[in-house]
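Pilot study result, target chain (113 residues):
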Amino acid sequence: MKYIVAVIQPDKLEAVMEALEEAEIHLITVSDVMGRGRQKGVAEVYRSHVEPGNLLRKVKIEIAVNEQFVGATLDAIKIGAHTGNIGDGKIFILDLQECIRIRTGETGGLAIG
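Predicted structure:
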């Protein structure tokens, strides 16, 4: 089991969601976050609003998947989030030690879905 965390540009969320849906990845969590990377100190225009360079609006996507879905999940995020410009984001892949479905008590891969 893997826990995949991606930080992407907010305007690419819809494209990533569509790519994940096509890859039959349905169980995700999305959060609005702020952060900075290599573009620090550079103002960025987002929806006609200039964001200061110290912290920029981003979207964090979190997905727990079984091993057989890791490649498809990564491909979908990379395709959906790619612009070729600085600030496209990052993907982190973590080992998921355990997952427990609260409602049924199922554990491991069964609990992920």
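One observation from the pilot: The beta strands are 2-8, 29-35, 44-46, 49-51, 56-65, 89-95. A full batch analysis is planned for the follow-on phase.
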